[in-house]
């Protein structure tokens, strides 16, 4: 590999450039360099802009944006992004955890000619399978070319997400724009159309044609040189009309089906040798500086012998190794079956979504999950129930007209409030099982907020307008049996606890807790506790240092502990006496709602640091800073935890990170695509169920497998 030109930077962020991946030192669509991370000593691959566009401000912005967006690609065959240059960097770049690796042109050079048909089929089957998953999730790669295809010991990887979008804005007659590999650019994109799934199929067909012939064109002569078994399929992939091209899933099946039994193939010896030599030429080194504390470290893999390090070590000591079933055969196996129904086996790579559902219009509240079976969604158009395992619509009603938040009951029904009544609706069928009209605000009091529900019972707040009364009897908490359609008890509310339709109540096994809504002038907050069985007042209690404004950021943790987030502090209070048990200072403002599982409380602050705090002692078990910090100190860093309690979800401006609940280490990161104004945000975790986490991005709802 030839040395770097002096004019090119030798250091980018924490990376020192030590070599080049580009065959012959040139690249048609971007530059790829081998670099060493001074923080960890590990070797990585850096992608830099095409040198003719590096000084174009618009291209630089788009290049960096697509680098951030490339985190959305999930699954084993997307090159894992470990770093992206900041907006103020002199030269934008993207760092991938892919080493040792050969660009496809370098692989052909190492093999001294076109690759064997079995290798090409395995490569195509894997990448077509990956495309099928990404397209199902609403993602278009728009950057597939020989230079963006890496061959590694355990399978191929695709880099260069969005290069076609970065190189040129939408418009007529782009032609062969600098920064875009014109060989694999679909004809419709050359004419100015936007990237599409069919364009990805064309680009992959061009890449496979190149791998099988060594020719960088798709002319008739090149197609004639294709192996007989590949020629017909690739000809359809390269059709001028996008509508005639096959879907990626069909392409993957045909590539697998046409292979003779037993002829799965293996990574050719020449490629294994080249990978081993590369690993030996650029070994990992001890980091130049001491490691940062765990809570300050970016989301780079922890020190130690990772799975990739084991592979690299094995290669560097075995030049000429034939990987056999562990090489290309492994690619083929990964491309078979659904491939998206399990969690990822590789740390850092998010699992592919189980399903994606476009709600069609703006959701009016966070989707509600019932057990592991149903997701209930209320939009401006309708109320819809989805099967949680498949994403299939169970039913949809456009005539329920909820006027405030829907409440799930624990008996397979939900409450849909109207202006003068509320309906109890079957979650299984969408049929109304009963309508309660006594709380109409005319003959009786009016409901102004549902508080909580458990099994057949729900609790809500009422206000009485008649007689112009001003006493405490005008506001009440009502406990209601939805099956017997009967009021169980009613308790008057004193003024500090009457709320304004935005009360955050806490439901415990024996009591209902209502926060004060009025500042007492002492900087304290108080709670009213009512007995769940009969509405009897149990106590009112002040909690010193707990501000009224943080009611939405409180929860009850095991051990009768009330946890509150106030500015730069997490506090744990004893419910029985009101005393503060512990406090944990945070580096940023905690404005999201914390989560608890077992004896641990989790919260994320505005610096994108997640804390795991022992609820009994207040000691910090671990804390971890995200590699994607929040944009401002007022941005909310949301936290959620999986149903099993094994995974903590940290949501930032750029991505959703899944952390191991035991030690805070990164499991995977993802940024699922929305549309319109939400297209560039990562989404938010809206619910968990056994084995599933639900993520909403704008009007797009995803279900991901977890744990």
TrEMBL record:
InterPro entries: Kinase-like_dom_sf, PQQ_b-propeller_rpt, PQQ_rpt_dom, Prot_kinase_dom, Quinoprotein_ADH-like_sf, WD40/YVTN_repeat-like_dom_sf. It comes from the Bacteria. Pfam families: PQQ_2 (PF13360). SUPFAM superfamilies: Protein kinase-like (PK-like), Quinoprotein alcohol dehydrogenase-like. SMART domains: PQQ (SM00564). GO terms for molecular function: ATP binding; protein kinase activity. Residues 175-198 are annotated as: Disordered. Residues 15-257 form the Protein kinase domain. This is Protein kinase domain-containing protein. It comes from Streptomyces violaceusniger.
């Amino acid at each position: 590999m030839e040395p770097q030109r002096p004019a090119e930077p030798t250091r980018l962020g924490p990376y020192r450039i030590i070599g080049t991946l580009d065959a012959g030192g040139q690249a048609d669509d971007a530059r790829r360099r081998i670099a060493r991370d001074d923080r960890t000593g590990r070797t990585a691959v850096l992608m830099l802009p095409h040198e003719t566009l590096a000084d174009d401000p618009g291209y630089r912005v788009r290049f960096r944006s697509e680098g951030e967006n490339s985190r959305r690609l999930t699954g084993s065959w997307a090159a894992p992004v470990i770093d992206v240059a900041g907006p103020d960097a002199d030269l934008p770049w993207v760092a991938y955890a892919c080493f040792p690796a050969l660009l496809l042109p370098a692989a052909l050079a190492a093999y001294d000619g076109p690759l064997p048909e079995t290798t090409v089929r395995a490569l195509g089957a894997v990448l077509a399978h990956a495309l099928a998953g990404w397209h199902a999730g609403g993602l278009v790669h728009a950057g597939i070319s020989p230079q963006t295809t890496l061959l590694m010991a355990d399978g191929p990887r695709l880099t260069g997400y969005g290069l076609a979008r970065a190189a040129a804005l939408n418009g007529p007659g782009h032609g062969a724009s600098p920064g875009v590999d014109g060989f694999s650019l679909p004809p419709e994109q050359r004419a100015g159309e936007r990237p599409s799934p069919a364009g990805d199929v064309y680009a992959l067909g061009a890449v496979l044609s190149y791998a099988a012939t060594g020719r960088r064109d798709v002319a008739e002569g090149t197609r004639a040189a294709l192996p007989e078994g590949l020629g017909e399929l690739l000809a359809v992939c390269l059709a001028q009309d996008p509508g005639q091209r096959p879907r990626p899933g069909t392409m993957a099946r045909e590539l697998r089906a046409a292979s003779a039994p037993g002829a799965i193939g293996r990574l050719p010896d020449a490629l294994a040798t080249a990978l081993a030599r590369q690993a030996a030429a650029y070994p990992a080194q001890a980091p130049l500086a001491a490691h940062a504390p765990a809570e300050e470290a970016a989301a780079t893999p922890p020190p130690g012998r990772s799975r990739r390090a084991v592979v690299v070590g094995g290669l560097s000591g075995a030049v000429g190794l034939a990987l056999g079933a562990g090489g290309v055969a492994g690619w083929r196996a990964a491309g078979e079956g659904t491939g998206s129904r399990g969690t990822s086996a590789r740390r850092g790579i998010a699992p592919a979504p189980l399903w994606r559902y476009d709600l069609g219009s703006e959701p009016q509240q966070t989707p509600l999950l019932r057990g592991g079976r149903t997701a209930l969604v209320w939009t401006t158009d309708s109320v819809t129930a989805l099967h949680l395992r498949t994403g299939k619509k169970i039913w949809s009603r456009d005539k329920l007209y909820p006027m405030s938040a829907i409440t799930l009951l624990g008996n397979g029904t939900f409450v849909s409030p109207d202006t003068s009544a509320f309906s109890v609706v079957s979650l299984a069928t969408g049929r109304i099982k009963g309508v309660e009209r006594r709380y109409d605000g005319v003959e009786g009091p009016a409901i102004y907020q549902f508080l909580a529900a458990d099994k057949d019972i729900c609790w809500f707040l009422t206000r009485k307008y008649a007689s112009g009364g001003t006493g405490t009897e005008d506001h009440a908490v009502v406990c209601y049996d939805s099956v017997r359609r009967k009021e169980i008890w009613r308790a008057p509310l004193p003024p500090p606890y009457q709320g304004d339709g935005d009360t955050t109540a806490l439901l415990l096994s024996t009591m209902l807790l209502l926060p004060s809504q009025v500042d007492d002038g002492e900087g304290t907050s108080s709670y009213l506790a009512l007995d769940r069985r009969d509405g009897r007042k149990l106590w009112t209690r002040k909690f010193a240092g707990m501000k009224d404004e943080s009611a939405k950021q409180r929860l009850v943790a095991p051990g009768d502990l009330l946890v509150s987030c106030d500015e730069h502090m997490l506090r744990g209070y004893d419910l029985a006496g009101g005393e503060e048990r512990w406090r944990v200072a945070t580096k940023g403002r905690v404005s999201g709602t914390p989560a608890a599982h077992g004896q641990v409380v989790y919260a994320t602050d505005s610096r994108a640091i997640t804390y795991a705090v022992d609820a009994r002692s207040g000691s910090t078990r671990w804390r971890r800073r995200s590699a994607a910090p929040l944009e401002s100190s007022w941005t909310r860093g949301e936290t959620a935890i999986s149903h099993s309690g094994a995974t903590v979800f940290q949501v930032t401006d750029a991505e959703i990170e899944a952390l191991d609940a035991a030690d805070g280490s990164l499991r995977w990161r993802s940024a699922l695509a929305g549309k319109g104004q939400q297209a560039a945000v990562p989404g938010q975790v809206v619910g968990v169920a056994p084995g599933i986490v639900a993520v909403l991005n704008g009007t797009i709802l995803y279900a991901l497998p977890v744990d």
